[in-house]
Amino acid sequence: MAKHPVPKRRASATRGNRRYSTWKRGELKRLNNLTKTVACPKCQQPRRPHTTCLICGYYRGRVVIDFAKKDEKKVQKVKV
Question: Is the pTM of this model over 0.70?
Answer without folding.
Answer: no
